[in-house]
Write a structure and sequence with these properties.
The chain is an alpha/beta fold. It is built from 15 helices and ten strands.
């Protein structure tokens, strides 16, 4: 019996101890869902992503693309895989018409008031209903002055036979055909079958001039010496210029393209609140200044300009004068019929892989 009494006493002690220990309550808040951002390559300071996650507790899953068309194809194929995308102006129109974008809640993005009036109420997104400006820039000619032996000022210079096989163009249908159209004296937004065909034929006739069509990495080819001239975005070249005094950037005399990339939230995003927090974060003045200074692109954030270096603000390739702006053109959505003409012209130059 004493053995049983001892066992009973031990059980009572254990039960008493369990009763004295408060139950562990389950964690009522699930782990934050990762915010999935799909952006252009080399287009953000990684420290900004880390800072956003640190300040909000929201992790980020970040992936990149090389062209608007690549991004659109991926989003249409897997719309549930992304929350935020960064399309250029004309692509916003296309995605809006396809019903892919979610309207913004202005109350959740109060820093929209920091936007430069120049970028408020754009034609591709009236009243900035769907997107917030991210960065803007131009497409122009990056070149190695030591290799060319002279300054490169025009589209015609790019096709000087002296540089045969030393040129990289963008693997981007609208941008490269648009520059060819400008070089021929036409609008980069033409819907004329004859003019689009002329741009196609010009590039085909000068195929020996072109070493490659680069998917948003022309700056790397230039820096490595693989080519001497590239058609590229301004900031991509400025990033490389910092490490090589021989590299230069020019806006062609015939005119060029100006563009603005925009942060948009996909309609099927389940993380709308976190996405809008990210948009508001990027539009904070110090974040906007950091973004522009790191990427070497131009900021649409008026409140950020005072925190950008005076040298950058005075650089006409970053912030062109009004006179220079008159020869810069935004690409616009040219409609379904003309888009098919551009795609057909491009497919003849760049067969689908």
């Amino acid at each position: 019996m004493s053995r049983y009494r001892a066992l009973i006493a031990l059980i009572c002690i254990v039960l008493a101890a369990c009763a004295a220990r408060p139950p562990v309550a389950p964690d009522p808040s699930p782990a934050p869902v990762a915010l999935r951002i799909y952006n252009w390559d080399t287009y953000i300071d990684p420290d900004l992503l880390a800072r956003f996650s640190r300040e909000t507790g929201v992790p980020i899953r970040y992936s990149t693309y090389g062209s608007n068309e690549e991004m659109l194809a991926a989003v249409q194929a897997r719309p549930e895989d992304y929350d935020i995308i960064v399309p250029s102006d004309y692509m916003v129109t296309i995605m809006r018409r396809k019903g892919l974008l979610a309207p913004l809640d202005p109350a959740s993005v109060p820093n929209m008031t920091n936007i430069d009036p120049l970028f408020v109420n754009p034609s591709f997104d009236p009243a900035n209903r769907y997107c917030a400006p991210y960065l803007w820039g131009t497409n122009g000619i990056g070149y190695n002055r030591a290799a060319t032996g002279r300054d490169i000022q025009s589209w015609a210079d790019v096709f000087d036979p002296a540089f045969a096989g030393r040129v990289a163009l963008l693997d981007d249908s609208r941008a490269t055909l648009g520059l060819a159209l400008l070089g021929l004296g036409y609008s980069p937004n033409t819907t004329s079958p004859t003019e689009i065909a002329a741009a196609r034929d010009f590039l085909a006739q000068h195929a020996g001039q072109i070493a490659t069509y680069a998917l948003d990495n022309g700056q790397d080819l230039l820096a490595s010496g693989a080519v001497d001239l590239v058609l590229e975005s301004s900031g991509d070249i400025f990033q490389m210029m910092a490490g090589n005094p021989d590299l230069r950037y020019s806006i062609p005399a015939e005119g060029s393209l100006i563009w603005i990339d925009n942060m948009c939230i996909l309609k099927r995003s389940p993380n709308r609140a976190s996405a809008e927090r990210f948009l508001n974060f990027i539009l904070t003045p110090d974040v906007g200044a950091n973004l522009a200074s790191f990427t070497r692109y131009s900021s649409p954030n008026l409140a950020a300009l005072s925190q950008i270096s005076p040298q950058d603000r005075a650089n006409l390739a970053l912030y062109p004068t009004e006179a220079m702006r008159r020869r810069l053109f935004f690409l616009v959505d040219v409609g379904g019929a003309a888009t098919k003409l551009y795609n057909s012209a491009w497919d003849s130059l760049r067969p689908r892989r």
